[in-house]
Amino acid sequence: MRTVYLLCIAGWLASSAAFSQTDTPLHRDADISRYLQDLFPVQTEGVDYQAIYDALAQLYANPIDLNTATRDELEATYLLSERQLTSLAAYRAEFGDLLSIYELQAVPNFDLATIRRLLPFITVAGNRSLLGNLPTPTDNYLIVRYERVLEEQKGFSEATPDKKGNLPTRYVGDANQWYVRYRYSRPRAFSFGLTLEKDPGERVDWQPGNHHYGADYVSFHAQVQNRGRWKNILLGDYQLQVGQGLVLSAGFVLGKSAETVQTVRRPTLGARPYTSLTEYGYFRGMTATYAVNRNLNLTLLVSRNRRDANTDSSDTDLVATSLQTSGLHRTQSERDDQGSLVETNLGAHLLFQNRHQLQLGLTVLRTIYDTFFQKRDQPYNAYEFTGTHNLVLGMHGGYIWHNWNLFGELARSSGSTTNSGGLGFVGGALASLTKKLDMAIVLRHYDRNFHSFYGNAFSEGSRNSNEEGAYLGLKYTLYRKLTVGGFVDYFNFPWLKYLVDKPSNGFDYLLQLRYTPNRQTAFYGVYHEEHKQKNLTLDKQKDVVGTTRRSYALNAEYTLLRGLALRSRIQWGSFVYAGQPASNGFTLVQDATWDYRRFSLSGRIALFGTDDYDSRQYVYERDVLYAFSFPAYFNHGVRHYLLAQYSLSRHLDIWARWARTDYTNQTTVGSDLDQINAPHKTEVKLQARWRF
Q1: Which residues of 430-447 are buried (b: 16+ CB within 10 A; e: fewer)?
Q2: What is the pLDDT of residues 474-511, one digit of tens each?
Q3: How far apart, in whole angstroms, are the C-alpha atoms of residue 247 and residue 286?
Q4: Quick one: which of 210, 301, 353, 366 is 20 to 30 A from 438 by CA?
Q5: The domain at 1-39+63-136 falls in which architecture?
Q6: Alpha-carbon Rg of the chain, whole angstroms?
C-alpha cells in the first residue's frame, strides 16, 4: 500500500468535519452560487453571462471524474493553475487512480481552499476501493418551473382601437413563463435530455406547418460515449468547443474576468449536449467522434437549423438582413421572423494529441443559408458577411512544457462574395512562474472581413472580427490567505463599429485583492477601469470621443452563527464622455443565507442610485437551481428578494423565489410593451425537482 494512501486517510479523518458541509445538495448549491459571485465581481461589457452560467450549471450537474478527466476538461473549471494541473498529472502517472476526492490533499501544490472550490465540479467514480470498481452513478431528474411578473405589463393589457379602428400591438400569449426539463445521464457514458420553455407573451400552439410544436422552445439530445473507438455520438442539439474558439466555441468561456489568468485559454472539449435556454448559437443534427488510433480523433458534424431573421422582400428577391437572437416570439412581427432562415452546417475536426503534451488540430466548417444574407447598407457593415455560404478553415495547436502552456489558433474565412477572405489569429501562454506567481499572455488579430458564425475566441468585442489586441494577466499569492491579481488589455478596432463612426482603440485594466483568513470569512476589493471611443451627439453634431468607465467593489463574507452566512457589498462607479459631466452610480447590498438541515433561506436588500442607465450597476443574485439572475440596477430605488429551498425527501426538492424592485424617482417601470404603470416590479418563481 502506497505511503500517500496513509497520508490521505490521515488527512481525510482530520478534515472530514471541514468538508462535511458540502455533502448535501443544499450546500453544493451554495458553493456554485458563491463561485459565480466571485467570478462576476464587476460587470464587463459584451459578456454573455447567461451562456456562461448555463455551461457552468451543466458542469455542476455532471461532475468531472478525476481519474479519467483530460487536462483540458480539468482546465474548463478555471480553478487550477498550470502548476497544479501538472502536479495532478504527475501524481496520477506515478500512483494511479485516486481513491477519494480527499486524496487531493496529498497532491503537491494543492491546498484545502482550492479543493473546497473544486468539490461541486469533481468526483472520483469507478475508483479502486475495498468494494471493487463501482459504476458511475446516473443523474435522472425532472424539473418544472413557473414564473411571472405580478404587475400588469402593457403588452398584456386590453387593446383599445384607435380613431381609425386599428388595434395596437399586444402580446399573443399570456404572462406566464413555463420551463420543463428532463435529464437522464451518466457521465462519460450516455445522456438523454428534453427541454421545453414558454416565455411570457408567447403562445402555446400546435402548428407543424409553421414549425410550432406546442411550447415555443423545444430542445432535445441523445448521446452515447466511449463505445469502443466511438468516443462520442450525439443526436439533437449540441455545441462544440475546439481549439481557441476561432471556428467552434461553446461551454464555460469567461474571457476577461476576476480570474485574470486561467480564463484566457479555451480548452478543447469536443461535442457537448446543448441544454441552455438561450435560443441561438447551437447546432441541431448529428455529430460523432471516432478514434482513428490512440492519438488521433476525427469528429464530423451535420446540422440544419431554422434561424430567426429579419427579411426584406421589397426587391425582386427575398433578402435576410439580420439574425434575431432574443428567442422571443411574443408579437406577430416576432412570430413572422421565427424560423424564417434555414441554415445548414457541415464540418469536421481532426485532433492529434501526444501524451497530453502536444496538441494539433484542423477544423473546417461550411455554413449555407437558403436565403441571400446582406446586412443593411450602413458604413459599419461594409465588411460584414454577404451571400449564401461561408467556409471557415482553422488550425490550432498547444504544447505543455513543465509549467508552461503554449496555445494558438489560425483561421481563414471565405464566402460567396468578395468581402470575405479575412484571417483570424489568437495565441498566447499560461505559466506558473513560481509557486506564488501565475501569468497569462494573449495576442490576437481578427480581420474586419473575417467571418466565423460559431466562434468565440478571446476578444474585447462580442465577435471575432475587426479587432487586434494584447493582454497580460498576473496572479500573485502573497501568502496562503492573501492573493492579488490583475490584468491590462489593449485593443484596436481598425474599422467602424456600431455607434462608433471611425476606427477606434482603447484599453482596460483590473486589480483585485482577496483575503481569506478562514473558511467562513473572505474579503475582496476590485477596481476596473475601461477606456473606449464612442459616438457623441451635441448640438446636432456627431463626433467620436473617448469614454471612461470606472467600477469599484468591496465585498465581505462572514459567518455569524452556525448555518448563518452573510455577505455585505458596496459597489460604485462612473461613466463619462470626454469633456462631459460624469454619470455616477452606487449600490449597497446585504445578503443573508440560513441553512438548517434540509431547509435553506436566502435574502437580499439592496439600495441603489444612479444618474442614468450609463452608470448602471450589475450585481449577481442567487436564484433557483439552474436559473440565472444578473440584473442591472439603475435610477433610484430598493431591490429585495427571498429564496427558499426545501428537500422534502431524497427524491423531491422545491424552491420558491420572490423579488421586488421599488423605484423612488419614477412612476412607471420598463418601456414599450413591457411598461408597468406603477413604480415597482414584482417577480415570483416556483420550481420543483424530482430525482428518480
Answers
A1: bbbeeeeebbbbbebbbb
A2: 999 998 889 999 999 999 999 999 999 999 999 999 99
A3: 18
A4: 353
A5: Orthogonal Bundle (1.10)
A6: 25
